[in-house]
Amino acid sequence: MDNVADWKRVAAASEIVEGAPLLVVVDSDDIALFRVKNDIFATDDLCTHAEASLVEGDQEGYIITCPRHGGQFDIRNGAPKHFPVFSPIRTYPVRIEGDDVYIEV
After folding, report:
1. What is the dihedral of CA 10, 15, 16, 22, to 10 degrees?
2. CA–CA separation, 37 vs 64, rounded Å?
3. From residue 8, how far is each of 46, 93, 102 by CA, in Å?
4. Higher-confidence residue: 98 or 4?
5. What's the pTM value of the predicted model, to 2 decimals?
6. pLDDT value of residue 1
7. pLDDT of 9 above 90
8. Among residues 77, 25, 15, which one has the least CA distance to residue 53?
9. Domain that holds residue 60
10. Average pLDDT over residues 2-6
11. Between the CA of residue 95 and those of 44, 45, 50, 72, what are the distances in Å?
12. Are strands 22-26 and 7-12 parallel, antiparallel or unpaired?
């Protein structure tokens, strides 16, 4: 790993199931973890439009749909994909070592 202080272990990879996002708390921030096949992605959990929890939304592939108003984001880069969201969500670099998932904060 690079600077160990910048990377935090957040979950076991085996805990993260495709289509069922996982909420973790890192330094009092809510982070959503997503799996697509063998890849894991991390984003802020709150929708930038209405601050709904994204882990309560529907994940289809790389797209997460906000449960409140149906806005969509690409979990790979946080880009807004569907009205009413216009602002991206923050994403975090992810590393997997064995079954451990780390994000850079």
Report:
1. -60
2. 15
3. 20, 11, 5
4. 98
5. 0.93
6. 47
7. yes
8. 25
9. 4-104
10. 64
11. 17, 19, 29, 25
12. unpaired
d(C-alpha 6, C-alpha 2), whole Å: 8
Give the total number of structural domains in the chain.
Answer: 1
Residue 41: which pLDDT band, with cuts at 50, 70 and 90? very high
End-to-end C-alpha distance for the chain, whole angstroms: 13
Contact of 71 with 84, CB cutoff 8 Å: yes
State the DSSP string of 18-70: TTB-EEEEETTEEEEEEEETTEEEEEESB-TTT--BGGGSEEETTEEE-TTT-
Q: How much is the average pLDDT of 41-68? A: 96
3-state secondary structure of 3: coil
Which CATH number is 15's domain given? 2.102.10.10
Q: Which amino acid is at 71?
A: G
Give the tokens for residue 39: 């890849």
Cβ atoms 43, 77 nearer than 8 A: no
Tokens for 9? 């272990």
